[in-house]
Amino acid sequence: xxxxxxxxxxxxxxxxxxxxxxxxxxxxxxxxxxxxxxxxxxxxxxxxxxxxxxxxxxxxxxxxxxxxxxxxxxxxxxxxxxxxxxxxxxxxxxxxxxxxxxxxxxxxxxxxxxxxxxxxxxxxxxxxxxxxxxxxxxxxxxxxxxxxxxxxxxxxxxxxxxxxxxxxxxxxxxxxxxxxxxxxxxxxxxxxxxxxxxxxxxxxxxxxxxxxxxxxxxxxxxxxxxxxxxxxxxxxxxxxxxxxxxxxxxxxxxxxxxxxxxxxxxxxxxxxxxxxxxxxxxxxxxxxxxxxxxxxxxxxxxxxxxxxxxxxxxxxxxxxxxxxxxxxxxxxxxxxxxxxxxxxxxxxxxxxxxxxxxxxxxxxxxxxxxxxxxxxxxxxxxxxxxxxxxxxxxxxxxxxxxxxxxxxxxxxxxxxxxxxxxxxxxxxxxxxxxxxxxxxxxxxxxxxxxxxxxxxxxxxxxxxxxxxxxxxxxxxxxxxxxxxxxxxxxxxxxxxxxxxxxxxxxxxxxxxxxxxxxxxxxxxxxxxxxxxxxxxxxxxxxxxxxxxxxxxxxxxxxxxxxxxxxxxxxxxxxxxxxxxxxxxxxxxxxxxxxxxxxxxxxxxxxxxxxxxxxxxxxxxxxx
Length: 623
Prior knowledge:
The chain is α+β, with helices and mostly antiparallel strands. Helix content is about 35%, strand content about 20%. Helix 2 (about 55-65) runs parallel beside helix 10 (about 375-390) and helix 6 (about 245-255) packs antiparallel against helix 9 (about 315-320). The longest helix is centred in the C-terminal third of the chain and has 23 residues, at about 455-480.
């Protein structure tokens, strides 16, 4: 009935969908196994994609040829560019998503891929021989053979839900947990542990009084995630802001004695940067209120997600506290918030390709590696899918450096440092965030996608045209001189000092009060020159302005990258026994033997490996 596949992907969350799409689009025969085909790419928590650093990841996925950005654009209901008041390194796209439409669009896209088959079942174990994966075993008693296997099990491995003093087995509300797979992997020798995450209650939007809240509209005009020709968003829906207060906090405190979080019932570590509301009022007890974001779940439902009110307190306590917030006096809830605890596998057990060190051709992606967030999961799935295909076809492994992408930062952090709490991406985690901006993700990564085979020639040629347009705009501005009489009226209206002598146009652009778009409309020679270029988009102009204004900072980061690259290019043997090097510390020997770094650069980022240990390694290598 089911033949042998090049790649089997287990789980159809964000990681599984990207993994299956990538491997199949590259030419592998792929089987996607999921317990419920109605919930592909389900948004289990808030109905949004992107955000700080996460938006950069979505654009990077798109630039490589993944689908998350395209599907987000086709299902978004609001778009905002966060951190516009800061420098472009901090700008982060974020969109509210129609949750149901998002899942439908993912399924449609996957079913359109000819090499991709589907099977609704639950994987309970894997098969292997001579330390190589050979297939999976399912709840239906079926064994399916494969050359490579990608596990993307999300929160389903021995998942357990907590609401007050109630608890029950589930991978998501009303969906059963997966048993057997963790035990199977532990039997092979994998180390597992427990983590915890949670979600907020859902509310009937018809019962809310929005006049008591602050409306939060989308950008006008809205932008997109994808660099492709996806539709522009029309008829944006608003979100709203409200807040907790001392009365809300007091009611929540009445449920603390039944809180699984405070009673110690939950063993797993929760997300530091997305705490539950009860955790917030304990950790930040001096604060009288906390912001709450009211997020619609779609155009065709009244269901509302209450962002900032995640809780595992008893449902009656959640409800009583909720009704004391502005706008929620007559609120009706669809379902309470809950916490969920699940198994994960510490990611130091992986290579940078996301292949496991213990079993060849077995890959882990998503929350199974200790991450949290749709975007973090999706990018891991993409990388795992690419590498599973490449290895089967004896092609070069695909690894992104920390200087090339946030995806590279994320995977290097996981594999090198590990995590003991749900890992979430932030701009602060990237050393080179001026280089890793959301606006240049296509310039950075689309050449990789084209070389891999996920980007077609038409899109690649379009990128080359964009790159040339940006270079030509920059060259024109740097070579153009301007007289005071030509520009002073413009400068005076922009509250910046007038010229007293002829100057370079570049120096005008460098003024913080001056915007390139405004200058183009005023200065005819520049406007005429840009009009002469082929198909110049607003993105091209924005890219040119950023490169001009931040040139010195960008060059400084490039110099830093060049210095660090010298260490990254010094390779280490992954089978070397570091216990032989008695000149380095015992902790360093222990950590190096466990992680088996690929390069000196990676070794230098391992916690417990000191600069003096690195010096010894360099001397040992003759450097």
